[in-house]
Amino acid sequence: MQGITVFDFAVFGSLFLTLFVIMDPPGITPIFLALTSGRPAKVQRRMAWQAVCVAFGVIATFGICGQQILDYLHVSVPALMIAGGLLLLLIALDLLTGKTDEPKQTKDVNVALVPLGMPLLAGPGAIVSVILAVQKAEGFGGQLSVWTAIAAMHVVLWLTMRYSLVIIRIIKDGGVVLVTRLAGMMLSAIAVQQIINGVLQVVHGA
After folding, report:
1. Is residue 35 part of a domain?
2. In which domain, by residue range, is 53 found?
3. What's the number of domains the chain is made of?
4. Which DSSP string corresponds to the chain?
5. Using one digit for the tens of pLDDT, what is the confidence trace for 164-197?
6. In angstroms, rounded to a whole number, what is the distance separating the alpha carbons of residues 167 and 69?
7. Which of 94, 111, 118, 206 is the most exposed, fewest CB within 10 Å of its CB?
8. How far, CA to CA in Å, does 81 sit from each of 11, 27, 46, 106, 130?
9. What would the pLDDT profile of 118-159 be if each residue is shown by its tens digit?
10. pLDDT over 90 for what percent of the chain?
11. pTM here?
12. Pseudo-torsion of CA 105, 163, 172, 38, nearest 10°?
């Protein structure tokens, strides 16, 4: 009876730490700065909020009916990982080659939706972790712990991106270019690793 009504701090802590490692707020900071550079501070703050809202919406949707969605579409988790990795790799190449410095590409596309909201924040790793956590949670207390952890993680993400804008005022234009190239390298590594993980899961499954 106790597990049904009491908030489970072990479940909360476990999922929060898992999402923190996967979604990586410190690591997302340079990528966010690179993708939103050149925009007014007000627009950047709005994009930080939009990215978190998109990520939370995707995570919540998959948390509620994720397994049913994947089964209905006949999409496996490895396929989701590989597709997300390929999308991230395309964005990373743009950052590395400087294509995001062109005004038409930076201002006409809302990067808060793609790639920030998904698949950077709400990526395959976070989605799968949430699906499993929701399925394993027992009673109201367990479910409350899971969803509180998800909400808390997104608050942390918003705070990290929201106040990372101070960095832009310090590093100026030259620093933004450097951060953009570094973000491209980091993002390409993340993308390749995600593709490798997906391929390995396919091989092991076969």
Report:
1. yes
2. 30-205
3. 1
4. -HHHHS--HHHHHHHHHHHHHHH-HHHHHHHHHHHHTTS-HHHHHHHHHHHHHHHHHHHHHHHHHHHHHHHHHT--HHHHHHHHHHHHHHHHHHHHHTGGGSHHHHHHS-TIIIIIIIIIIS-HHHHHHHHHHHHH--HHHHHHHHHHHHHHHHHHHHHHHHHHHHHHHHHHHHHHHHHHHHHHHHHHHHHHHHHHHHHHHHHHH-
5. 878 777 777 677 778 778 878 888 888 888 899 8
6. 39
7. 206
8. 25, 19, 28, 26, 15
9. 888 998 889 988 988 998 898 899 999 999 999 999 999 999
10. 29
11. 0.75
12. 20
Tens-digit pLDDT profile for residues 9-67? 999 999 999 999 888 888 888 889 888 888 888 999 999 999 999 999 999 999 999 88
In a domain, 8, yes or no: no
Among the listed residues 49, 77, 84, the one whose alpha carbon sits nearest the alpha carbon of residue 154:
49
Answer whether 163's CB lies under 8 Å from 65's CB. no
Q: Is residue 174 part of a domain?
A: yes
- The answer to whether position 131 is within a domain reads yes
- Which residue is associated with the tokens 């009504």? 5
